Amino acid sequence: MPNKIRVNLANALELQELPGIGPEQARAIVRFRAEHGPIQDERQFALIVSARPLDGALRERLDFDPAGNTSPEAPGA
């Protein structure tokens, strides 16, 4: 089983290890976290990366914990 990526803690390079996520999408994820806080779930992640629906291989690698205000760029962090 491939390693999961902690979406709310990963940097842009780590996010690009996810299947189908390139530099532009990784920057969008980091920017979203900086402006809005942690990504809560697959639905929100799909909206950020403009992928509907998410590929099964990608879904298997996503880890949204912690989903509290702990992302490095979270407002007030």
Walk me through what this model shows.
- This protein has helices spanning 12-15, 23-36, 42-49, 56-61, and strands at 5-6, 62-63.
- With 77 residues, the protein is mostly helical.
- The chain has a two-stranded parallel ribbon with strand order 1-2.
- The longest helix has 14 residues, at 23-36.
- It is globular and about 30 Å long.
- The N and C termini lie far apart (32 Å).
- The model has no long low-confidence stretch (mean pLDDT 87).
Describe this structure in a few short sentences.
This protein has a domain at 5-57. It has four helices and two strands; from the N terminus they run βααααβ. The protein has helices at 12-15, 23-36, 42-49, 56-61; strands at residues 5-6, 62-63.
Q: C-alpha Rg, in Å?
A: 11 Å
- The shape is globular
By secondary-structure content and strand pairing, the structural class works out as mainly alpha
* Overall pLDDT level: 87
How would a textbook summarize the main sheet? 2 strands, parallel
* Low-pLDDT stretches: none
Order of helices and strands: EHHHHE
Q: How are the elements arranged and paired?
A:
Elements (H helix, E strand, L loop, with lengths): L4 E2 L5 H4 L7 H14 L5 H8 L6 H6 E2 L14
Parallel strand pairs: 1-2
Main features:
mainly alpha; 77 residues; globular; single chain; 4 helices
